[in-house]
Design goal:
heterodimer; A: mainly alpha; elongated; B: mainly alpha; globular
């Protein structure tokens, strides 16, 4: 693997050299995510309660694909998974678990967001709209992210990098951007069909 | 070939904890909004840097726990995390990245903020506060990540399923509280 059992100086230097650049990229991207989130405040008016779902969706998504990235990192170090062997049964089981967790979590999130808007007395959309937005966004973002995670984890190790150093930062920024794009698409879609929903 | 991972087992292990984490973060999110809302309104620059700030401390602590669990699995460290030298060197690496990253965030925050609105903060204090609170949050998160790894690994669970949700959720809370408290006190 060439990553473990490095000398002391090499461990610190290599980790720094592999992690710092991607971290700097995520900072720039996250600042624009912040600017963008301030810019879409109009949507919050049109779909009341949406603002309760957004942080939860990003967090659930980050936790699920982050854990996938971390499991793949361990699997790559153990030699179970590699770039040449990226579609094997272990990867498929991991992918299946992450996609299912995404679906289950987003459904619960939709229900939880609906209940908490009632408890907190916020103006809110219907339960169906909450669930629809959470599940659709999370499925679209989740499937693309899972693919991206498998790619980045295996490809980084193929390039001789330690997947543990780059997968999670890369994932966090791509994930947030994907979630926002899909959220906007799904929110627009939900608004356009909201007249037909019970 | 022997299969190591099983989707159903991963789901069974992760789902209860992830559900707990989502409820926990909804409650703390509400609390933080009440705590930080006024300050954020007063200093727009905080709103601009907060997502990146939280994201970075979470990412760094996650990279650290990810490296530690890999070291555990390949047998580079034992289940008491010994030899501690490996832990220490990994922590040093992350603190160096944190130092670079949070300084960069403070500078770029000021640069971008100056495009969008008038800045009402003292540059040197702002940079010191962001760098200090970021590094302290990252160090605390690494210890919390280690604790989560220890608790799960010693119970036969896969720490890879637990450390990231733990560090990102507690990191959001501690990072925001520390940053806002320092800003209230020193800015």
């Amino acid at each position: 693997m060439g990553v473990f059992f490095l000398s002391e100086k090499d461990l610190v230097l290599t980790t720094y050299k592999e992690t710092a650049p991607i971290i700097l990229v995520t900072i720039v991207a996250e600042i624009w995510v912040g600017v963008f989130l301030i810019g879409i405040e109009d949507f919050y008016e049109l779909l009341p309660g949406l603002f309760i779902i957004v942080p939860g969706l990003m967090e659930a998504r980050g936790n699920i694909s982050g854990a996938l990235g971390q499991r793949l990192g361990s699997a790559i170090h153990l030699g179970i998974v590699s770039w040449e062997d990226k579609f094997n049964e272990d990867v498929r089981e991991n992918v299946k678990a992450s996609v299912s967790l995404g679906l289950l979590m987003s459904f619960s999130l939709g229900v939880l967001a609906f209940i908490s808007s009632i408890l907190l007395g916020f103006k809110h959309m219907s339960l169906l709209e909450f669930i629809l937005i959470a599940v659709l966004t999370s499925t679209l973002a989740g499937v693309s992210q899972v693919g991206f995670t498998v790619f980045i984890a295996t490809y980084s190790s193929h390039l001789g990098l330690d997947p543990d150093n780059v997968t999670i930062p890369a994932l966090s920024v791509v994930g947030d951007i994907l979630t926002i794009i899909y959220l906007l698409i799904v929110a627009k879609f939900t608004l356009s069909i909201s007249g037909w929903l019970p | 070939m022997e299969r190591y991972y099983d989707a159903q087992a991963i789901i069974n292990e992760s789902l209860p904890f992830l559900t707990f984490i989502i409820i926990f973060s909804m409650v703390t999110g509400n609390f933080l909004e009440g705590f930080a809302g006024n300050i954020i309104e007063k200093y727009s620059i905080i709103l601009l840097i907060l997502p990146a700030f939280i994201n970075m401390s979470g990412s760094l602590a996650s990279v650290f726990t990810s490296r530690i669990t890999s070291s555990l699995y390949v047998g580079e460290i034992d289940d008491d995390f010994k030899p501690y030298k490996v832990l220490f060197l990994n922590m040093i690496s992350m603190v160096l990245v944190a130092f670079t990253g949070f300084l960069f965030l403070a500078f770029i925050g000021i640069a971008v903020a100056s495009i969008f609105f008038e800045i009402n903060v003292t540059f040197s204090n702002f940079i010191l506060i962001v760098a200090f609170s970021g590094i302290v949050t990252t160090i605390l998160m690494m210890f919390i990540g280690l604790f989560a790894a220890k608790m799960t690994y010693s119970r036969g669970l896969d720490p890879d399923n637990f450390t990231i949700p733990t560090v990102t959720t507690i990191g959001d809370l501690i990072g925001t509280l520390l940053l806002i408290t320092l800003i209230i006190t020193y800015l």
